[in-house]
Amino acid sequence: MPNSPGFRSIGHWINGQIFDPASSRRQLVWNPATGAPQANVLLASEHDVDDAVAAAAKAFPAWRATPLSKRAESMFRLRELIDKNRHHIASILTSEHGKTLADAGGEVARGLENIEFACGAPQLLKGGYTEQASTGVDVHQIRQPLGVVVGITPFNFPTMVPMWMFANALACGNTFVLKPSERDPSVSLLLAELIQQAGFPDGVFNVVQGDKVAVDRLLNHPDVKAISFVGSTPVARSIYETATRNGKRVQALGGAKNHMVVLPDADIDMAADAAISAAYGSAGERCMAISVVVAVGDAAEPLMTAIRARIPNIKIGPGDAVGSEMGPLITREHRDRVAAYLDTAKQEGADVVVDGREDAAYLKEGFFLGCSLIDGVRPGMRCFDDEIFGPVLGVARVNSYDEALKLINDNPYGNGTAIFTRDGGVARQFQFDVQVGMVGINVPIPVPVAYYSFGGWKASLFGDLHMYGPEGIQFYTRSKLVTSRWPDPSTSRVDLGFPEVR
Ligand code: NAD
Asked: What's the mean per-residue pLDDT of the chain?
């Protein structure tokens, strides 16, 4: 029980060890499948944050001076350790987030891609060299780490999103402070242990658990050089504004509303399978989830029929139960907030075709909501405009490709989108026209592989650089240009003119 002495406590990880001050504020961590509290997570004070940043700052000079091949070696060992522990990691994710074990395994696999990419740091950090830029003058460029960098991460990918950040950050020679979501914090400590086992020195990777108090201190700490954030749009915007004002480098990825266009020539069964998978996978708690299908012309009726027919077949249950395809939502409050959209949708004139509250799972102990389907959604309705972040799929009916495109381009978010068609020309036009950062052509969740970079447009990303991949390397380093010559001192003379190429 929460107040009993044996109740599990989830602490910080500072300078290579667990830090669990008795005086800390705490918050309950739930098991979403049972609705029961399972641990207390510490909420860092400003002082705790200062300790973590101090540990990272102390470790930085030696870590940045460590030969690149040694840093890469540690990254290779980490890759092996995470691979060996992938089922253990997945089970922690399932117990705190609620996603199915298979989905959690997929999260670990996609995160691991980023560790594998970072193993190539010696190649990725190569600079450039120009011989004879001027007579006897050479120019070379190097990339150097920033110092202490921070990752602030959301609840929906407690392993993958930290890996998006720390893999490249550490490989580039930075030291790192992770502030995970307080709703599913345990896996951050297992990652810290594996990072230590892989041979990264103490202080190179630290974890502070916490809420706004910890985040605000990180945004204001003078020794923090860069902030990577992933979470909802209002928080992303405010973090970007505060941290840039404080002179920090920032990439802040925000929320999303992802539309999937289905043209009349599309294979309707394939489109329905994709819509169902992308809308209800992970109970819709993915920033790349499809939340609105935009059905063009004659596609609408058969598509609605096909989607509706598939919904009763989805097995809803605890993420670790055999056969479960969709687990619970993260908390009871979030589940109730999502469910309330079904009422506002009705009030606003949309047609709630399937109400997830009528599913038997809704009555269970955990934070379950059945798959929900709303027909006739359009701009101006809250169920169309807001990011719902749950298993609620809207269908907007439009008459033409142009109307579908306008609906997407007028939307304030621009994270992901998809088009389903058999017409390559229209798909290519869509790729050219659409104002969204990541586009799928007959692919509903186009999350880029780790050797490209991930990022949306508009209110889905604040900052210039996308996350992970080549842009991640750019984010975690700064460029230094060196111009050199080795002249015969006897040729030296005073010249007050601006240096030109000679
Ligand atoms: P959130 O914004 O509530 O929390 C994200 C992080 O910010 C957490 O670590 C949290 O502790 C911290 N935080 C929350 N409120 C804060 C505040 N007022 N001040 C300072 N820090 C605060 O997001 P969430 O609910 O954990 O995650 C879901 C959201 O994340 C969705 O909007 C989803 O679209 C988005 N997301 C985006 C991406 C992307 O790549 N664009 C990926 C995953 C999730």
From this structure: 97
